[in-house]
Known about the structure:
CATH superfamily of the largest domain: Spore Coat Polysaccharide Biosynthesis Protein SpsA, Chain A
Bound molecules: uridine-diphosphate-N-acetylglucosamine, calcium ion
Amino acid sequence: MSNLVAVIMAAGKGTRMKSKLPKVMHSLAGKTLIEHVLDTVSHAGIERTLVVVGHGREGIEACIHQRAEIVVQEDQLGTGHAVMQAIPFLEDAHTVLVLSGDQPLLKSETLLALVKMHEAQGASATVLTAYLDQPFGYGRIVKDGENLVKIIEEKDATSAEREIKEINTGTYCFKGAALRNALTSITTQNAQGEYYLTEVFEIFSNRKEKMLTYCTSDSHEALGINSRGQLAEAEAILRKNILEHWMAEGVTLIDPASTFIDAEVHLAQDVTILPFTRLMGKTRIEEDVVIGPQTSLENCVVRCGAEVIYTVAKDAVIGERCHIGPFTYLRPGTNLEAEVKIGDFVEIKNSWIGKGAKVPHLSYIGDAQIGKSANIGAGTITCNYDGVHKHTTKIGDYAFIGSNTNLVAPVEVGEHAVTGAGSTITKNVPAESLAVERSQQVIKEHWHRE
Ligand code: UD1
Ligand code: CA
């Protein structure tokens, strides 16, 4: 693959999506369409990639994050015009691989097979095709016997051509010099008045240059996302593949139909996922973890043997053998050591909680450090925000915080210290001492309301 350059066309608006977002920025299993295509290209070991951007380019450039060189197509005059913008950057490219930013299910093995066949047979152009029962909307592959004659768009096709079930996936391999040359001859004489990249095939055909088709056996790979319906179709296909992959790797899914796992999530062997569970982003789950039912984790790490039920968590680390839930909300910056218990109606944010500590019920813990084996009574609140700044609460190892304690930060409770139920703690509590802050209970015997 010497001197091979990939060009991804991603400048179109995606009118049929009816969206503020450029089409390739729509999300599929937790990654944008353009990231899916970039990943396919980089997994194939292709070193140089250009992305043609135009509509909504700032957002796409930020998303690509310097993974590829950027080529700008100011006006989107068609796929042929998109590739023309890349030509000045392709001077010494022997082989040019052109891909569409809206074809996210393409596999890197298929790309490699396409390039291999193209280079081995010395073709000027090779197009990746597929057979579809319902080819509507795709360019059709018109052949004379085995030989490719042209690619005709749906809108330009005759009714006989529309019957053809072999379609253009929108991925191609070209000999660099032949592509550069043919692109100077394409026109806008077609139903859409655009510069079609596909017109170069007719030019090659007239010049009797060698053209090939490489047909993928997995027609799902061909799916081009032009509409929200096709986006949902791709999501369903990808989701099924992801679930099947993890089951084959030794993960139990009690109900695949209600389990949603993003493309970049990683699960270890003997993980069990209960119904109505969604794992998002770069979540990583270690061995023997049980997740769900009804749990949603985004960019979380869950260590061996933990159990997480009826929980919502984002950017949190859950330690080994922790018990989380039901009805727990872990916000960014939550870091739980091993064997921590967090129970019902507890919210935790930006806090570190030591080994074996317990926050079993009805608490808000924010900007806190809680020592090992500390017990935080029901209804404890860290008052971390004074309306202007956030402050830290520190609770020592083995401390016992009585129910309904308010900890007005910044404040520290020492090791083995105890706070009385209902106290509002505003001063530091030394180690091994008791702090009580509440009025004395008064008893009036034989008291009646007048
Ligand atoms: C294109 C092909 C069609 C093929 C189908 C596969 C052409 C003329 N047609 O049609 O044969 O079956 O893909 O999905 O190529 N783009 C630009 N600049 C532009 C126009 C488009 O960068 O000026 C980008 C789009 O952002 C998109 C890709 O090129 O990522 C394909 O464009 P799209 O409009 O989706 O082409 P289709 O009509 O699907
Ligand atoms: Ca398309």
